[in-house]
Design brief:
With about 350 residues, the protein is mainly β. It is built from 1 helix and 25 strands.
């Protein structure tokens, strides 16, 4: 049976799931998935009932009553072509109870070799946007995202370039906080799981030049109410050389602050651990010339329970901000990390997502 090895915060996070009365299992078996198991059968469990299903929950959900209720699916990718390295981000989210800017998708590309960066933000009319319930079937002008937990296809078209890739998960799904539900801030529950390692190949076109790319992607699926009291957050995803997948949330609300990580091990077991607040070690701040928001570009990530100290830095170009319709923005930045993890030296690539103000 797989296990959850909890460190301090896990009890509170899991208690939140139990208090909400959820009893859905992500898989019918609590056995650790072996490396040869088909991806659709590899939803990692912790021995605690999960509240998300990485097969059915790729589909659209019926909206809750909250004005800020949202559905979101997102990939970040690290790919290579012709001796160059690229970071890719594709994201679509809907906030169906809004009357304006309710349906949206974004695409961004960073050439980590040259520093070239570009992004595209598309607002879509409700009648032009389709996301089926119960399955991953998204269609909108310029965007097609279809498939399931075993294989997915993403196509993007913009005035300056596009993407056409196939993605295949090569490991178990990650349920955030081990169950798939946690309080984002101030007691408001969110639902989230990831397919953290997806073999990716296909075509990237930028400024008329075609690249045959290969690499890996991390898919995140999230839904629920976005708390109005959420003032800022940082999210990071890290693939460790030993096969561990680490997802970090650092959130600040009006009443609570949380900094923690879900760690998925190759055998399907979890650690849910404290992380030292990221603002304590943030440095090398950059101010956006477009929105005038300030973001750090360096972090020292300390995870005491795992004897881990990691230096994370934005790569390629600090200007990887995506502007929003209200004139603000958020960072979706390709990054790299070095340091120690469980006492061993490590290095790798990841993404950092940041919202809100991060003054010095």
């Amino acid at each position: 049976m797989t296990a959850i090895r909890t460190k301090r915060r896990a009890k509170a996070l899991v208690t939140a799931a139990v208090a909400l009365g959820f009893s859905t299992f992500a898989g019918s078996s609590a056995q650790a998935a072996g490396p040869s198991a088909p991806p659709t059968a590899r939803s990692a469990t912790s021995g605690i009932p999960a509240v998300v299903d990485p097969v059915a929950d790729l589909g659209r959900h019926a909206a809750g009553p909250e004005e800020t209720w949202f559905d979101s699916v997102y990939i970040t990718s690290s790919v290579k072509a012709n001796g160059q390295e690229f970071g890719l981000q594709v994201h679509t989210r809907i906030i169906p109870n809004r009357t304006e800017n309710a349906y949206r998708w974004t695409f961004s590309v960073i050439n980590k070799t040259t520093g070239w960066y570009k992004d595209y933000d598309a607002m879509v009319e409700p009648e032009d946007y389709r996301w089926s319930e119960g399955k991953l079937d998204i269609k909108a002008p310029g965007l097609s995202w279809t498939g399931d937990s075993a294989r997915q296809s993403v196509q993007v078209e913009t005035p300056w370039g596009g993407l056409d890739v196939e993605m295949t998960p090569t490991g178990p799904a990650m349920n955030y906080a081990s169950t798939g539900v946690f309080n984002l801030v101030d007691g408001v529950p969110n639902y989230e799981f990831a397919l953290p390692e997806m073999r990716t190949s296909g075509t990237l076109v930028v400024d008329g030049k075609k690249h045959r790319v290969r690499g890996t992607s991390w898919l995140d699926r999230q839904w629920g109410e976005m708390p109005l009291s959420l003032t800022r957050w940082t999210w990071m995803n890290l693939n460790m050389p030993n096969g561990d997948k680490v997802a970090i949330w650092d959130t600040v609300g009006s009443r609570t602050k949380d900094s923690w990580a879900t760690v998925l091990h190759p055998d399907g077991s979890y650690d849910v651990v404290d992380v030292e607040p990221l603002a304590q070690s943030a440095s090398r701040r950059w101010t956006s010339p477009a929105t005038h928001q300030t973001y750090p570009t360096r972090w020292r990530v300390s995870i005491p329970a795992l004897c881990s100290e990691l230096d994370v830095r934005v790569t390629g170009n600090p200007d990887q901000e995506i502007e929003t319709p209200d004139g603000s923005g958020y960072l979706e930045a390709a990054s790299a990390f070095t340091g120690t993890y469980n006492g061993k030296k490590v290095r790798g690539e990841n993404y950092v997502e940041m919202t809100g103000e991060w003054p010095s």
